[in-house]
Structures are given as structure tokens and as C-alpha cells.
Amino acid sequence: MPSLRHSYTVTVPEEPAAFPVDKPELRRKSSSLSRSMLVSTFVGLIINQAKNKSAQGLVGLRNLGNTCFMNSILQCLSNTPELRDYCLGNTHRTDLHSSRASRAALMEEFARLTRSLWTSANDAISPFDFKSQIQRYAPKFVGCNQQDAQEFLRFLLDGLHNEVNRVTVQPAASTEDLEHLSDEEKGRRMWNMYLQREDSKVVDLFVGQLKSSLTCTDCGFRSTVFDPFWDLSVPIAQKNSGGVTLKDCLRLFTKEDVLDGDERPTCNKCKARKKCTKTFSIQKFPQILVIHLKRFSDSNARASKLSTYVNFPLKELDLREFASESSERAVYNLYAVSNHSGSALGGHYTAYCKNPALGEWYSYNDSRVSPMSSSQVRSSNAYVLFYELVSSHSRYQTCRL
To answer: Taking residues 150-156, what's their average pLDDT?
Structure first.
């Protein structure tokens, strides 16, 4: 990742010649180690103070009128360790360029709310000021209508990223032809070009790279595209025998799809619209993997919801089978779930989070926070899953290539 803050370490490939690392960039990252240690110490003091008040991130959020969707996501993000530390230590202010500091109201309010969730002695606090800021950034959340938690998460992460983006001058769009490069080199170049424009703590944590491949069934020509992703929106697999697993859903998401209708793309070799096959794979694994289970759909102008029980692992989700050939093994542990109970026409959002300070699971239901067993985390209400990377040697993972 482009930043070396808090618990990041720099992993240098065994063969530097194959993956050159810019030396001035390494010097810049190394110089931030001492500051990182100071921030970690400061964050530890804050959490110790919270422990004395028996808070430790176990503070609820009052419902301001159908804001359970917002409260659920905020609790999941508050229990994301590195994002929490980023806010508790006010480290986000070091990423604010002076010309943007006065316009970083959303990030400031998010950081303030996160600090309150970890230091307040109250059982619950009001997110009113934060709600006012997110409504200014995304007017679609104005009012008291029930909203989609996954959509809210995307808007929020996009807003936070824009305010702490370390890139202050956008480079000109590249006109370099990459089609002659190998998939691995093309993916690497595309990722570095993305970081030249989008480089923030939010990107460090949440953004990965998806590889899509199109193959013409007539001439066999294959083209690849590499796109950044904030989350994976995966369809829910349906089995007559039941027993749907998260990997079943991911296999459905990555399976080969035949494009043979109006969606036929233009083959770059045939110069005509041709029948093609399309596949997806993960080129770069993010530190925080967000998986959105697509429970809602619109069919025949009527909204519907799938309440299928999806069995997802709490520990050691191994995603090697979904990786591109050039990627390596990535293993994730679950730490938060945003749940939706009810129908597509109405319902209620809650969150289950593994408290990073205590290592125990808690249920967050607006103002109410209560302990729960890990055996209760899986349910047919699970909607957005938050996984943290625990084991990876991905070449993209810890340094700019």
C-alpha cells in the first residue's frame, strides 16, 4: 500500500530487479516510523482512558429517525482497528493539504464521532452533527427515509477519501498503450497510475483491484481490464439442497459468463461485436475486504429480498481460488457484519462487531450494545461483511511498485 502508518510494514520483494521500488519513496516511508510509534502510543493512552470508564467502543448511537442503516455502518467502521486509530490519534490531519483543511468537515466529524464512541462515558450518543455533514456531502440522505446501508457505506468512504486524498495536483491522464504488456505488468502499471490520483488512508485500507477478462469465441483474442473496487457485490447462490456458503457466492460472482446478446462487446481484433466470455478474479487484495451480499433486487417493478442463509467463516477465509494467477494466498478474518431484518419494503439494520480492544463480539442495535456469542454472528440477516487481512504475501500489499 502507498502509506506506512501505524502497523504497516514494508515488504520488499526477494528479487528487486523484477519489482523496482522507488528509493526516495522508501525514505519518505521510513521517516514516518517514529511518528507512527508516537501515534500508536497516544492511541493506547486514549483506549486506556476509555477502559477506566468501561467504554472501550461499547457506546451506542441514537436513532434520529430511520437512521439505523447509518448507525450500523458507523459501528462497523468504528471497530475497524486502523481506521479507528487514524481517528483517535487525529492522524487524518497530517493528510490534509492546507488548501483543503477548511473543507474537511466530513472527515473531522467522522473522526470526532469515532473518538466519542471510544471515550464517552455515556451508554449512547447522538450522531446528529455527523448526519448533518453526510447530508451536505450526499443530499440523497436528507430526510428520514430508510436507506440502503451498503450504498451509504460507499458514499461515506468516497467522501472521507476525497477529503484526505494526499494527491493535491492531479496528473494528466496517461495515453500509454499497455495492451502489449503481460497481465501482471499491466495490472501493476494500472494500480500505480490509480495511486497517482487516489492516495489516502481509505484507499490504503479498503481498495483492491479486480481483473476482468474478455475472450472472443471467434478469434480467441483476450483483453484484460483492471479496475479498483471498494467492495465486492456478490450474488447469492441458490441450491436445491441448501447449504449455501460464501464461497458458493464468490464462485457465482467469478464464474465464466457468456455475452451473446445485446451485451456483446466489440472484439479489438475482429473489429466487430462478437460473442465473448467474461471472467473476474482478484488482482490485488485489500487490507479490509468488504463483501456485499446482494439480497435486494427489482423484478417486475416490485422490490424483493432474498433471506437465504449464507454460511460464511468467522476465521481463515482463504481466497486463493479467486485470485489472479500473479496474486498470492490471502486469508481473512471476519470482524463486523451489517445486518438487515425485514423485507425490501421496510426493515431494521443492526451490526455485529468484534471489539478490537476486548476481542469479543457485541451486538449494536442503535442505542443498545450487548455482548453476544460468536455462534450467533451468522444469520439470514447478514448483509455486508467486513473482513480483515491476516496473512498475505501479495506483491501489491505493502509497497508501491
So the answer is: 96
- Domain ranges, residue 84: 56-168+177-394
Written as nine digits, the cell of 250 is: 464468490
- Per annotation, catalytic residue among 68, 87, 216, 276: 68
Choosing from 180, 270, 348, 393, the catalytic residue is 348
268: its cell numbers? 479489438
At 205, which helix (H) or strand (E)? helix 201-206
CATH code for the domain of 378: 3.90.70.10
pTM, two decimal places: 0.83
Residue found under cell 430508510: 146
| 386-396 residues labelled b (16+ CB within 10 A) or e (exposed) | bbbbeebebbb
Q: How many domains does the chain have?
A: 1
Q: Are 243 and 311 in contact (CB under 8 A)?
A: yes
In a domain, 38, yes or no: no
353 is known as an active-site residue? no
Q: Residue 43 — φ and ψ, nearest 5°?
A: -60, -40
Model pLDDT for residues 61-117, shown as the tens digit of each residue:
999 999 999 999 999 999 999 999 999 999 998 887 655 655 789 999 999 999 999
pLDDT per residue as tens digits for the range 26-63: 333 333 444 445 554 555 555 554 444 445 899 999 99
267 given a catalytic annotation: no
Exposure string (b/e) for 246-255, b if CB count within 10 Å is 16 or more? bbbbbeebbe
